[in-house]
Design a protein that fits this description.
Length: 158
């Protein structure tokens, strides 16, 4: 079955945002409880910032995945790139489960290193297929780099 580009676009956005929704199931209950009570670094953004930032980043991820997908799943490089992309989405979701669900900043710190390298691998795979797709992931790796710093600081402070 051939899927038209409009449907590919919608699927790519929905799958990406779904990763954020699954992560938020573990995040939301902790925001007012456990997370509110732990010591955070001085440059920690207020809690309301994270929702809009992550929603935007997941949308950008979906658009990037669409740019790659529309090149055709008959191409081996596209299949590999999208496989790496899906892997980093899983790692992204796991971070929320570990940090917020399990209340484990140390475990999440280890996991976010794997996530960061998975994002880098995705960018490298995407740039060979679609430069705009790769560029759409740059804000994501920058944000995750900042998140890694926050994760480290929270681990140290607590």
């Amino acid at each position: 079955m051939k899927i038209n580009n409009t449907l590919k676009f919608i699927i790519a956005i929905v799958v990406s945002e779904l990763a954020g929704i699954i992560g938020s199931i573990f995040t939301t209950p902790s925001i007012a409880g456990w997370y509110a009570e732990i010591v955070k670094p001085a440059i920690n953004p207020t809690a309301w910032v994270f929702g809009p930032v992550w929603t935007t980043l997941f949308a950008l991820m979906g658009i990037a995945a669409f740019f790659v997908w529309k090149k055709g799943l008959d191409r081996r490089d596209v299949k590999i790139a999208l496989g790496i992309f899906l892997g980093q989405l899983v790692l992204n979701t796991l971070w929320s489960i570990i940090f917020f669900g399990l209340h484990s900043p140390g475990g999440a710190l280890v996991e976010i290193v794997f996530l960061w390298f998975a994002i880098l691998a995705t960018i490298i795979a995407f740039v060979k297929i679609s430069k705009p797709a790769a560029w759409l992931l740059v804000p994501y790796i920058i944000w995750v780099s900042f998140a890694a710093y926050l994760n480290y600081a929270i681990w140290i402070l607590n």
